Amino acid sequence: MSNHDRDPVLLTPGPLTTSLATKTAMLRDWGSWDAAFNAVTARVRRHLSEIIHAEETHVCVPLQGSGTFSVEAAINTLVPRDGHVLVLVNGAYGKRMAKLTQMMGRRASVFETADDVPTTPEDVDRLLTADRSITHVGLIHCETSTGIENPLQAIAATVARHGKSLIVDAMSSFGALPIDARTTPFDALIAASGKCIEGPPGMGFVFVRRSVLEKCEGRCTSLALDLYDQWVYMEKTTQWRFTPPTHVVIALDAALAQYRAEGGQPARLARYQANCKALLDGMRALGFASFLPAAIQAPIIVTFHAPADARYTFKAFYESVRDKGFVLYPGKLTQVETFRVGCIGAITATEIRHAVNAVADTLAEMGIRAVTPARAVA
Ligand SMILES: *Cc1c(COP(=O)(O)O)cnc(C)c1O
To answer: What is the fold, at CATH topology level, of the domain defined by 20-261?
Structure first.
């Protein structure tokens, strides 16, 4: 019998495992007109801004929906109809940003590097020098499709030097990796409730430079995704413009209280680094090789090469590990067979070590004795 009646540990980059305190915060109903609820919204916005020291320069605009809704809202609200966005791509989320930019009717140029090659500030400098028509640069901070970290600080400085506007998808890094709006120039930075803050999924938020957002009236081609309208309405009424995800907001508030109690961003990063190390050590001991070199691996999610053994299929592997209580994540690479394991969520290195044991037991059950990766890695 498997333990399906218990919640498995989610080793996935959102939704992820939340704490009991965060889950139980959702056991109440709130009216959207209620002053108490709207005070929570204001508090959540303030606490989110404090994490990246953006209170003086940027406004935090929350938005209903998954993270992609907020990426689309940021592009559609900030980029003028005749704007030109340079999207820096080294994985699926970069491709998604380029696609939605085009679908919003804005011009998009893509600069793509391989999945294991970060974009460099030199690349960005060259591209912005070569094409003066570019108005905005889109960057994925941690590209969750592999776990690669792109150099946000250096790229932001380069974009600012060229006088262009930077839009950062920091979905899977916000709250864990250090980001400081006082020293890292960006016009918009996007994240969501269900990643490193460890809330439930269902709400995104965009930090937009106030002086920029003030000029964005009427730019958005979508009613529901208009961050300018959402912001103005919220400032005027304290309420959300349309039905708020009340339970998500309340649980995010609880998750933020735990975040501060834990010690904020440095403590969150330290726990994820310990998780990542336990994962890499444990999996290497089983013979697995990770896809990325350590220097560009963010402690958020790790991509592993699948065993070359003919008995391996991700589906069977996944189901067996899940029946032992741990949910893995499929790979997102087209060239090599991989799977991913998240380091984030309300878990510690203890859960990670148990997960590695579950992987070891699964390999034995599948009759896979040697984990020779499909591609040799130094
Ligand atoms: C999770 C994530 C998103 C948003 O994905 P949704 O499925 O819409 O929540 C966007 N970018 C990155 C880098 C992510 O990790």
So the answer is: Aspartate Aminotransferase; domain 2 (3.40.640)
